[in-house]
Amino acid sequence: MIWLMANNDNYDKVHKKLIECEITSDIQSDSEQPLTRRKYFLPQRYIDSEDEEPQTSSQLSRPPKVRRLNLLSADDGQEKFQQNGTLMAVTRNRNLTQINESSPQTFNCDTPKISIQESCLTAVTHVKEQNKQILNYLTQQKEKQSSPFPVLPELPTQLPINTEQDLIGLNQLLTESPDTNSALCTYLRTLGGKDITNKTNRILKYILTDEVAQNYNYFGKRSKKKAFCELQLNDMIIRAVKAGTNCNNNEVEGLIKLWLKHAPERLKAIEKRQHKTNN
Questions:
Q1: Is the pTM of this model over 0.70?
Q2: I want to staple 193 with a disulfide (CB 3.0 to 4.6 A). Which of 199, 209, 222, 232 is the partner?
Q3: Could you tell me which InterPro entries the record lists for this protein (predicted)?
Q4: Does 2.30.42 match the CATH number of domain 164-278?
């Protein structure tokens, strides 16, 4: 038998096809082998352990058909249904309580209502006890706090300070009375500010006027000015600014230096505005 694998007029192309045919097909076989369908074998997990040889999909038995339960009429407290071709009877006790003839029992219809009322009463009493505990806790917390909102303590002078003598008197009071010092510091915290600089400037402006501030610088080493760092007021301002902010003493001290430094310039600006308004 001769197989015609390819046909072409060019010898070189036919020679290349011949080499491909030697690799891809068996040209030495006498007869063409018939094509058979590949057999499918089930995985090992679907094969019974008792079987010696694996079964193909065509040899497997069909699973049993699932039949639904057919409910029939119930007679004398019994329900009958048919399952797998057989009739079975199931008895059901439809009574709420079993009554013995020797010791008869009475069924009261009000028992569910009574149990619901008792549960509601217990829940209400529990809520009342919780409310009492909350009120007691709130009253205790209120008693611990002397004043709900910080109040400006009584001072010998009005703020802001206008004279040097008033500043010396306030500094002496803060040194001798720690309670007044802490109360004034707590009140200055409530002035607020969008940042550390704004908060520091608001506190200084609330306490001192520019007329008094121009006579001070922070260390008192230049232009024969007094040292603001030696005052008790300086420590109180630093504590008030640091409360509720992430800053250190050096940052607050630098802001106080700048505010004291620009006090003369602020006075000149105020005088210029007043001169313009008068003219």
A1: no
A2: 199
A3: DUF4806 (IPR032071)
A4: no
